[in-house]
């Protein structure tokens, strides 16, 4: 079965138009601190403690924390939709894998008292 040229051109044009939408969703300066390939959810900002980064022969280990006025479900939904577009495979709601690395999303504020609706998200990147 062959695809008519007009149909193929329409599909390519639609894909071309979707690139700015993806770029708007993931701006170049909006990545998780220490993880240049993991987008930061717009509702989250870096916590004061910064990132802990180890670059080892077996792979990098990065741990960083972000906070914001957003629900856990919204955070998980954002990463469930965004990460596969960047080549990450979703293993569970809070675990992603790509090229020998695992990214864990942890919510330590769920075990500690939360500050007036603020959520804390810990990003832990380790070799697989």
Give helix and strand order, one letter per element, not per position.
HEEHEEEE
User: What is the multimeric organization of the chains shown?
Assistant: single chain
Strand order in space, largest sheet: 1-2-6-5-4-3
Number of strands: 6
In percent terms, what proportion of residues is strand? 35-45%
Q: Which class best fits the helix and strand makeup?
A: alpha+beta
Tally of helical segments: 2
Work out the helicity level.
Answer: 25-40%
**What's the rounded overall pLDDT mean?**
80
Q: Give the N-to-C terminal Cα separation.
A: 42 Å
Radius of gyration: 18 Å
Question: How many strands, which pairing sense, and closed or not: the largest β-sheet?
Answer: 6 strands, antiparallel
Shape: globular
Question: Which parts are unreliable, with pLDDT below 50 for 5 consecutive residues or more?
Answer: 10-28
Model description:
The protein has helices at residues 5-25, 72-82, and strands at residues 45-56, 59-68, 89-92, 95-98, 101-106, 119-127. Strands 1-2-6-5-4-3 form a 6-stranded antiparallel β-sheet, covered by helices on one side. With 128 residues, the protein is of the alpha+beta class.
Question: Summarize this, please?
Answer:
By secondary structure, the protein is of the alpha+beta class. Helices cover 25% and strands 35% of the residues.
């Amino acid at each position: 079965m062959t695809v008519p040229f007009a149909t193929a051109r329409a599909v390519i044009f639609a894909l071309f138009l979707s690139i700015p939408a993806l770029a708007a969703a993931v701006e170049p300066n909006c990545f998780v601190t220490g993880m240049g390939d993991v987008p930061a959810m717009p509702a989250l900002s870096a916590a004061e403690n910064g990132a802990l980064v180890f670059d080892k022969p077996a792979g990098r280990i990065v741990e960083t924390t972000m906070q914001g006025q957003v629900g856990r479900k919204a955070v998980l939904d954002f990463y469930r939709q965004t990460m596969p577009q960047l080549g990450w495979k979703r293993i569970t709601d809070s675990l992603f894998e790509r090229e020998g690395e695992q990214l864990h999303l942890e919510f330590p504020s769920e075990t500690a008292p939360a500050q007036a609706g603020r959520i804390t998200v810990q990003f832990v990147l380790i070799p697989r």
